[in-house]
UniProtKB/TrEMBL annotation:
Coiled-coil boundaries: none
GO biological process: regulation of mitochondrial DNA metabolic process
Protein name in UniProt: Mitochondrial inner membrane protein Mpv17
Signal sequence region: none
Localization in the cell: Membrane
Gene Ontology cellular-component terms listed: membrane; mitochondrion
Keyword Acetylation: no
TM annotation in the entry: 68-87, 107-128
Record gene name: MPV17
Source organism of this protein record: Chelydra serpentina
Membrane topology designation: Multi-pass membrane protein
């Protein structure tokens, strides 16, 4: 019974947090989107360093995490937020067909450009030359783009 009570409290707490987040997002869409993107990119870097690369706390690069958060705050949040606003204006509605059209346009048109810019920015912040960044972009791009 105690476990059930704790689980219910946790679920209720998460619901309250989610509603608060949604309210803030409605009131301040740009600020919340940018903060969310920066936070998620930072958390993603922590996961990459700790789980994927297995660096341990002593080997964790806080500088790298801060750089990634800056990219999230200054590039990912504003660009992705602006793109989704543009998509909503270009293809209004909320049917499955509208969602499919948005997804195709996003994946075919936006994603390759976004990824190229993201890799170029991260490369520049990590001291790569333009040639090294371009080589990295070509390694992760499908043949038709390269």
């Amino acid at each position: 019974r105690l476990r059930e009570a704790v689980a219910q409290l946790a679920a209720g707490g998460m619901a309250v947090l989610w509603r608060s987040y949604q309210r803030l997002l409605a009131q301040h869409p740009w600020k919340v989107q940018i903060l969310t993107a920066g936070s998620l990119v930072g958390v993603g870097d922590v996961i990459a360093q700790q789980v994927v690369e297995r660096r341990g706390l002593g080997g964790h690069s806080g500088r790298r995490t801060l750089k990634m958060m800056a990219i999230g705050f200054c590039f990912v949040g504003p660009v992705v937020g602006g793109w989704y606003q543009l998509l909503d204006r270009l293809i209004p509605g909320n049917t499955r067909m509208v969602a499919l059209k948005k997804m195709v346009l996003d994946q075919v048109g936006f994603a390759p450009c976004f990824l190229g810019c993201f890799l170029a920015i991260t490369g520049a912040l990590n001291g790569l030359s333009a040639e090294e960044s371009w080589a990295k972009i070509r390694r992760v791009s499908p043949e038709p783009c390269g």
